[in-house]
Every structure is written in C-alpha cells, then in structure tokens.
Design a protein that fits this description.
The chain is built from ten helices and six strands. The protein is an alpha/beta fold and 213 residues long. This is DNA-binding response regulator.
C-alpha cells in the first residue's frame, strides 16, 4: 500500500463523474479543507485518464459508470501507471460483485452516493493515508456471519495480516514462524472459508470485523 500523503502536504484531487452536480458538490466539500483542492474534473473515462496523466493527482474520485471507459478500467490503468495514486470509487451501485474487481484493479475506496458527506470525507481521508475504506453498507451486502469461528486464533491472525497486504515472508517475520508455517495457516484458512485470492481475504476480514474498513 501507499504510505499516504503527509498531513501538511498539499493534496490534489481529480473528480470524474458525468453529473455536474456531483462534481460541484465534491468541489464545495473540499473547498473548506486546508491543503485539499480539486485540480481537475472529468465527465468521461477518457478525460479522467488524460487529466490524471497530465496532472498526477494524489487522489482520484471516480464514478463507476463513467461514459466511455468505465470506472473499473480507469482504475486499472491509473493504478498500473501511477502506483502511488489513491483511487476512490463513488457510486450509486451497492453491488458486492464490483468490489473484488475494483480492489484487484487497485482501488482503495468504495463509497455509495446515498451516504452523507461525512462518509465521503472519511473515505477520502483513509485513501489519502494509504488505507482501504469500503462503505459499510456495501461491505455488508454479502455477510459471512459466524464464518470466522471455524478458524484457529493463528489462522485469524494470518488472515488479518494478509488483509493488510502483508506477504508470507513479512507475516513469518512478524509472527516469528517459518514462511512454510504461514503458508500452511493461510492455505487452511482460505480452504475453510472457500476463498481463493488475497482480495477475497480482505473482503472477508472487513465483513467480519477482523480489520476495520
């Protein structure tokens, strides 16, 4: 994950949404925040990519349903070309099927437009700091209540660290065990939970409050 933006560093935000009122609302919201500014606005996915490549913003707030290139593809291209950028998807769609693809593409935030301004600002703060922020409403659309109870305490700890983006080698160093032991716990936990990727593990950890979104 990115180390995030320092507290006293100016933070440039690109806003991409085909609705002018949404863009104006975000711009007004940020106008009261010292060191934050909307450096560019885009109505289409193509415009968002062009402006991001030109201006290199710290944070991109993208609608999922952008005209032309979708928010998912914009996210994928931005995160590949600019690994330090924080991408926050701001959408009307509370569809858990989008989350794995967006996180896999590199997005660090997913917030619903039905939520209030405070929720959007909290998400932007988290993403700017290099953290992951998923709308609680979106994350809870597909619950896995009680699933964590099938894991051992060590498996839960491994799942937590995987969800934070740690590698097996890093986890082994933190837990003072071998890489092989970590791999055994990780494989066992994923098999018990029916998970297949690190993104799946992250979503499971958020939904079951093993980590906070």
């Amino acid at each position: 994950m990115s180390e995030g933006v320092k507290a006293d560093e100016a933070l440039d935000v690109l806003v991409a949404d085909d609705h002018p009122l949404i863009r104006a609302g975000i711009r007004a919201l940020l106008s009261a925040r010292p060191h934050w500014r909307v450096c560019a606005e885009a109505e289409t996915g193509e415009a968002a990519l062009r402006l991001a490549r030109e201006l290199r913003p710290h944070l991109a707030v993208l609608d999922y349903s952008l005209p032309g290139i979708t928010g998912l593809e914009v996210t994928r291209q931005l995160c590949r070309e600019m690994p330090g950028i924080g991408v926050l998807v701001y959408t009307m769609h509370a569809d858990e099927r989008m989350l794995p693809a967006l996180l896999e593409a590199g997005a660090r935030g997913y917030v619903l437009k039905t939520e209030d301004d405070a929720a959007l600002l909290a998400a932007m703060d988290a993403v700017a700091a290099g953290d992951i922020h998923i709308s609680p409403e979106a994350a809870n659309r597909k619950t896995m209540q009680g699933a964590a109870s099938v894991l051992t305490p060590r498996e839960i700890e491994v799942v937590r660290l995987v969800a934070f983006g740690e590698t097996n080698k890093s986890i082994a160093a933190q837990l003072n065990v071998s890489v092989k032991t970590v791999d055994t716990h990780r494989t066992a936990a994923m098999r018990k939970l029916g998970l297949h990727t690190a993104v799946d593990v992250t979503l499971f950890a958020i939904r079951n409050k093993i980590i906070e979104p």
